[in-house]
Amino acid sequence: MYAIIDKRTAVAIKKNLEKFVDDIFEFSSKEITYNAISGHPDIFMFQDENKLILAPNAPVEFLNFLDSKKINYSFGIKPVGFNIDDSVLYNCLNTDNYFFCKKGKPDITIQEWSAAKHLINIPQAYTRCSMFSIGNNIITSDKGIVKELEKNSIDYCYFDPSEITICDYKNGFIGGTMGLLDNKVFFLGNILKHDDGRLLNKYITNLDKEVICLGNDYLYDGGGIFFIS
């Protein structure tokens, strides 16, 4: 099992993550998109339980890593870029039953792959940044997404993003701090540093998952932790 994380993630977090995987790829890119998200895997890759779709301009070093590990993947059509529309192409989310995105924003290959799912049109184009799924249960830091979840009777837990750190901006998003491997939910930091941490911990443990906080500081939005094999 391998993990993909932002290269800028704290060294202590990387050391703790090493205990759970065989290798870690530290993701970074230059002059492809803006700095805050330049190291975020969720900007360059879409993953569900059956598919891995990459931006055609994903860094060569990343592709070489996947090839060396014999990981199967395919490419989308449009490259990641600097404007909003070009930076959200792969930042969407599938669950067992639903496809979450701002309608029309994902790369066409992902739209076609997810066509059999029930589309939930949310107001936040940075979907995978702003939400995370455990089965069909959703964790989100976006109140606009909460409204759509309630409208569609989808169970959720809201987490205030105000103290989630991210490069260059005031705060990040909860989805960008998380990853799921088997029965373990991993965080880039410590959820119990946050006011909503105990609530989130209870929500996850009630779903029969174990919370693994990889650091001792406030959560870091590094574009998520992606586990691949």
Write the layout of secondary structure elements.
Blueprint: E1 2-6, H1 11-17, E2 23-27, H2 41-44, E3 45-48, E4 51-54, H3 60-68, E5 74-75, H4 84-87, E6 93-94, E7 98-101, H5 108-113, E8 118-121, H6 127-130, E9 131-134, E10 137-140, H7 143-151, E11 156-158, E12 178-181, E13 184-187, H8 197-206, E14 210-213, E15 226-228
Parallel strand pairs: 1-2, 4-5, 7-8, 10-11, 13-14
Antiparallel strand pairs: 1-15, 3-4, 6-7, 9-10, 12-13
Overall, the morphology is globular
**Beta-strand segment tally:** 15
Determine the number of helices (DSSP H or I, runs of at least 4 residues).
8
CA gyration radius, whole angstroms? 16 Å
Write up what this structure looks like:
By secondary structure, this protein is α/β, with parallel strands linked by helices. It has one domain (2-228): L-arginine/glycine Amidinotransferase, Chain A, CATH 3.75.10. The chain has helices spanning 11-17, 41-44, 60-68, 84-87, 108-113, 127-130, 143-151, 197-206, and strands at residues 2-6, 23-27, 45-48, 51-54, 74-75, 93-94, 98-101, 118-121, 131-134, 137-140, 156-158, 178-181, 184-187, 210-213, 226-228. A three-stranded mixed β-sheet has the order 2-1-15, with no helix packed on it.
